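Entry 14. Structure prediction run on the chain below.
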Amino acid sequence: MREQIRGICARYPSEYWQGLDRERAYPEAFVDELTEGGYLACLVPEEYGGPGLGMAEAAIILEEINRSGGNAAACHAQMYTMGTLLRHGSAEQKTRWLPGIASGDLRLQAFAVTEPNAGSDTTRISTFAERRGDRYVVNGQKVFISRVQHSDLMVLLARTTPRDQAEKKTKGMSVFVVDLRDAGDQVRVRPVGTMINHETNELFLEDLEIPAENRIGEEGEGFRYILSGMNAERLLLASESIGDALFFIDRSTRYAGERVVFDRPIGQNQGIQFPIARAYMHTQGAIAIRDGAVSLYDAGEPCGPEANMSKYLASEAAWEAANVAMDTFGGYGMAEEFGIERKFREARLYLVAPVANNLVLSFVAQHVLGLPRSF
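Output returned:
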């Protein structure tokens, strides 16, 4: 699997990604090749046309893409966003959508949860879906919704009961599959400019009509359905961060061995080699935690703490390795042609998204160590 992904990535060198970064363009050719190879469908069961592989294989795919210098965030959601449908959808819904997702004929890469006035407190979302006969009419606003302009379908979380009328604050939210091809002006998209080439948007939903048959599971239970997919997301994004860390370590090690200053390779200096070695060891620790969490996930065992710790440790290791690479390359690290500055910017994302690392610390403190809830 690793060799196959490396072979694909070799056809999309640093120049390819640098060009996309400058133009803020989507890697269509790269994503198409991954799709045609079935890699993005690896978690779809065989009965729906997928290869029926596990989290271990999915993690390898994303790790190797990022280690090669690519950016798996452009398409990683095609792997796991369908999990809500797979775990909680009806037989009819699975038959209707999963084969197309597996083949790549349907892109399900958008996941609309976050709102400007809610942030990480998902229970405070205000986008509302009102039931009217055989359909829901949705009004509201979402922000930081990635890849929506490169998706056919979108998973949407909206309130179906006002927060102050719900049994609990985590109740009264429902999940829907939105067919963006039919949405027209009912979904207005405003791109959000960011420091990286990460196609993300603000959405304005105005009288968006969704057939009731597109609601996933029971009305009001959407928050629980969304949470059930978080472990997969954490593990896959941890794998991307591990790939980033290894990218920086690979490049730093090679450059430190080749770059000669004061008549000696700079890698001979402890001030250069010790930070690289330290970053490598921290990355290996993150890999060990990730691999253990993946084993639990594939065995069907609970792995919430392990998945969250994986995301935290991997993103921290990637950021450490990114700074080490910048120091190792010196001024050349700032130059576009070396590819370090682009990956440096990309690696910073996973410290704050899709869950901020401070929230992971809070989760571990409360749910693993038994300390009082901090918020």
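The chain has three domains: 2-103, 108-221, 227-368.
Filed with the rest of this week's runs.
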